[in-house]
Amino acid sequence: MDGFSGYNQILITPEDQHKTSFITPWGTFCYRVMPFGLKNAGVTYQRAMTYIFHDLLHKTVEDYVDDIL
Q1: How far is Cα 9 from Cα 67, in angstroms, rounded to an integer?
Q2: pLDDT in tens, 45-66
Q3: Which residues form the Reverse transcriptase domain (predicted)?
């Protein structure tokens, strides 16, 4: 399973959302969920997958970055 869009399922705490802000001609916006490409996005996603699948890891499930086998 490719978990590429899984990054968009991890919420950013409201006090940290301003750190993802960007300006466009239509206004200033910020992410409410973790976008792919942030410096620690891979580590955060990996930690979430390890937490979710901890009982199955190395038995029936293997996870690596954004892939789950």
Answers
A1: 15
A2: 888 888 887 787 777 777 666 6
A3: 1-69
pLDDT confidence band for 68 (50 / 70 / 90)? low
Q: Which two tokens mark 12? A: 């950013």
Rounded Cα gap, residues 67 and 69, in angstroms: 7
- Asked if 58 and 68 touch (Cβ cutoff 8 Å), the reply is no
Report d(CA 66, CA 37) in Å as an integer.
12
State the amino acid at position 69 in one-letter form: L
Write down the domain spans for the chain.
Answer: 4-68
Which tokens go with 46?
A: 């990996």
And the tokens for 8? 């968009």
**Strands 22-24, 27-29: parallel, antiparallel or unpaired by DSSP?**
antiparallel
